[in-house]
């Protein structure tokens, strides 16, 4: 997997999953722009990469605005002469149940995740089209955006919107040779430490204990490094024909999320009244109703 001719921006890459993505891209030869809101964190990430012989520079700015998106693309071009890959990973959490979530809680998460993805991808695509030789858009989604998650109205909405944008971009950008895909990772990070039944396993991992198979396989949770290979693959020439997809990755598991599709269809001449729907519901639609939220093995939830 040779990425030595590639230049990538990875937003939110000072630590955690973003840093794992950046380091894996560098390990395969790419040059990277590290992004974080903290100068010391960004500088430490760059120092770690360059000390190992990699190429990296830092752009310190909060993702969301067009100005930051322009700084990120300019940072890649100024340092390395071009841009080939945009990985939109930056994110924050403001978890609260709906009736306690404030406008600020909602807007902050939407700004970083959804608007930040839009502005960074738009700026990258402008550069890709100017260069004329394609490009790679890799947007970070979440299982919460695919299935919903308690207390995450803002986060689930943003992550769902990201996958919807990716499907649209895959159509709009295909003729320019630009692919757009989403990756929905699950990894032991500060975000997943707050999940009660996962906390003991993550704490054990910090103490050098291996994660059991039920966590790495059925839950699909592992280290940030476990989720990084799919990023380098999608950035490579080997993925030139893959676009508009949403990947699930974590631990020992790699999977594709399905696109939303019709699960039950019935027709009624002249359209459907409320009484018509009530009469037909159990026979056609009742058994086709789908669950919400992530589903985990029962033996984990019983602990």
From TrEMBL:
Q: What is its EC number?
A: 1.1.1.-
Instruction: List, alphabetically, the InterPro entries matched.
Output: KR_dom, NAD(P)-bd_dom_sf, Peroxisomal_Beta-Oxidation, Sc_DH/Rdtase_CS, SDR_fam
Keyword Oxidoreductase among UniProt keywords: yes
Tell me the PROSITE patterns matching this sequence. ADH_SHORT
Pfam families (UniProt xref):
adh_short
| Annotated signal peptide | none
Instruction: Report the family membership.
Output: Belongs to the short-chain dehydrogenases/reductases (SDR) family.
* Name of the protein this chain belongs to: Reductase
Query: Where does this protein come from, organism-wise?
Result: Rhodococcus jostii (strain RHA1)
Keywords, A to Z, come to: Oxidoreductase
